[in-house]
Amino acid sequence: MKLDLCEITKVVCQKRDATFTQNKQANKLKHYPRGYFTRTLISVLILTSLTACGGGGGGGSTTPVLPDPEYIIPIEPISVADVPLSGTYKQQTITNADDVWALGHKGQNITIGVVDSGVNQNHVDFYDDNGYSRINWTDARSIEYILAEDSIDYTYDYRDIDTPDFHGTHVSSIALGREYGIAPEATLLPVNVFFDKGSAYNIAIHEAVTYLASKAPIINASITGMVNFSNVGGSSSEFNSYLTTLQTYDSALVVAAGNGDSIGNDNIGDPIGAEHFNNTTVQNLAIESSIDNQVLSVIAIDDSGVRANFSDYPGSCADVIGGCNDSEALTMTEIQNTFISAPGTFIEAADGSNTTGSVSYSGTSMAAPVVSGGLALLMSAWNQLTIQDAVRILKETANNTGVYANASIYGVGLIDILAAIGPIGDLESSASSTASYSLTESTASIPASLSGLAKISALKSVAYFDDYNRDYSVDITPAIRIEKTPLDWNQFWVNSHSNLATSVELDDYALSVSFDNTQYKAIKSLALQNQYSTFQYFKNSSNSVIETSNNPLASNFYSNNQQDFGATLVMQQAITPKLALFTAVQEQDNSFSRVQNTQNETLAQVQTMGLSYQLTHNLSLGLSSQLRQEQDSLMGLQGSGTFSFGENNQSQLNTLSLQYSYNDIQLFSQFQQGQLLSSNQAPGSYINIEQAEMGQFKLGVMQILSPQTSWGLQTFNYNRLLQSDISLTLPVGMNSTGKVENQTIRYSQKNSLQPDTVELFYKAGSANALKFQLNAIHSPDDSGFGLKLYQRF
Q1: In whole angstroms, what is the distance from residue 513 CA to residue 489 CA?
Q2: Domain boundary among 362, 396, 421
């Protein structure tokens, strides 16, 4: 049996028009059509017209003593064992709500206020897994405007009496039902305003919105006509009444766009955004700057993924009579940005006529609670999130590609709750803009002996913050690189090569200059010396410049010539024939840095001062003290961003060296010991070095067999960072007040002076023949050998 939908609509509308003709208080008692929804029952399609109200203001208001509420307390506990969990209905899958639940966000501790026809409090869809009601029945109300008394009547009777449709139950179930809802663990706060089923006074609806705004962050009103308000009535108009409410409370009002009833009641969607321009008495509440992101209108999407034919939509300047000027075009864009699209046809949800059944309806009434539930999921994921931020995020992450790119039809696009849960913008190390680093800016390079630092479990769950200060748990261990530097023989041969040199005699002084063959007129080293004094400059130098300066054979070892430093100045002054004073200043070469520091080009500076003393003809002694100043690094630890190993670290390293010569054989030993003097934790860094000790013991032998032939063998401990105590202060999240919560973890490592590296060199040849040098090294980082063949013509 098919019924003529148009004829039914006419009869209902005519009947209601006659009923309300007698209303003489038009300004404060206006009625707005709530729109149409389609109810599917068996195989009969019935279109029913329901009217509802929006607005407020005018009239007196009283709150009588509330009666005993016991008769509408939900039955609890009940058995829910046989009730399936939600996750398979279109409103859940199309919006990706089910994927958000898998992340643990289900609307916990968030209340959704629903202004409608009440709720069947005993329907199983409003219970939790343990069989207890999720309805806040102690605050639930009915609010009715009594025309004869010109007063507001509050009661506890929030039961859905909208037979046979039970509109309020169905809408509430879509928002947060256990089986059918978007936010299946949210709390429902219903307010019943529809006492004659299809309509309610605007004063009661505004009173309900104000009441809910004081108790819930989200207010769902599947009611049309609640955005484009008439300005008639001045400060007490509907527009200003709602504006005042939303200015007073941090709540969002989610409303149905409407079902084609604003122009001609033809059930064909209308461009209602254009009413702001086409009707000079209409103001658009949603674009008021003082309540930015507190009003959303929801467009219904059908099963084919496009706007449902009945759904109202924002429209464009083409729908404005006479078109738009530049200012009006900007306003139209603002209006379009207050609309969002959501599934709204044949939505299955709770049937209020019983306690377990379901029914399918279509309409923007069904689309609105999808968005309300999405806001609840978003807010349950971050309890410090404001409702304005939640609305903004939901709009910013809506799917606006393809067909949804048309803002005049779909507003900001189709709601995508999973996308809204994801980070927006760069993840930063702090919720504050002060000393904050993006995740990609934070890297670290540490020696293998500290590999345990990268294995700390807390580093796998560190909070980083997006543009909305939402905290995300991030595994940051991939940003820590265990440094095992492979042997680079080619670089070694370049550094150790004896470049062309020029010598000039200047009275008592001799000036010698060597050049880098790979660069045009580039000076590699310069020396000015006489019998008592020596001044040397090196473009690049090794870490042990004093050792290699005093003993040229030492430069043949791979580990002694790794271009750790750039510009170097060395000065020596003989005090007596056996005693000499030496000083050196070195700056680290940035090209060597494995982790580039963007804050300061100078990563390290080393100042050395010492004495060399010839005890006997065969035995010499050296004493030196080295002051190291390092930026975001310490003895092989290098980092940047949140992995900065201290700002302006200062450490001291003392060295005692002995060298014994017998004929052409040289025995040498070197003992270093030092510690971190001071460390300033870099702003924004998680790492603080509390104390560190460093040292090295080196023992070796070298022999000159002929002017062209020599060999050497040395052993030492590879890592000079002997002991360190490091604390990590890691953000783990943000509390409800927006304060970042941290945890502090301490890490200690300890090495010894025991040698773990053996190194050998052998070089041979003759003045006019092919020459070669063989090097071999075995260290914790790498093992291998290098062979160099060269002929000078």
Answers
A1: 25
A2: 421
